[in-house]
Amino acid sequence: MELDKLFVVIQLLTLQTVSHAIKCFTCASADYKVLFERFSNIRHSLHIPRFGELCDNFERLHAFAPALNCESTCISILEPQYFGGVQSTNRPYSYIRGCAGKIFSSVQNRSPEVDFLHTEAICLELPLSLIWPSIETDEHVQASLKHCS
């Protein structure tokens, strides 16, 4: 992997409907807490999630993360964790989980690809700064609502 790129995979989570409302788990890995405190766009898009390593474990989400009503699709953003150019075997990804509508709420002049992520299973590459404009970077992320091949 090139050091100048950050890969994030967004996966569609199981949707739960209760009275026509979608419930999504809202949490983030502990290493995102600093970004949450530093960037207001991320703070507004994540509804003060719980931070911790239990967010990394889908089986433990029910006990750890609150399930909030959402008007959009539930997504998970998976950021691969590399140390010395090798992906970590203990913790291969960091996670952000929540409602697509909230996570992408700070995106102004959204590209068609970002809007498409709200509804369809696609795989695309886009700048991380397109998701959160306050993070000024040219790094590209791989965004999808399905596994990218």
UniProtKB/TrEMBL annotation:
Record's GO cellular component terms: axon; neuronal cell body
GO biological processes: olfactory behavior; response to odorant
Signal peptide annotation: 1-21
Record's keyword terms, sorted: Signal
Coiled coil residues, start to end: none
The protein's name in its UniProt record: Secreted protein
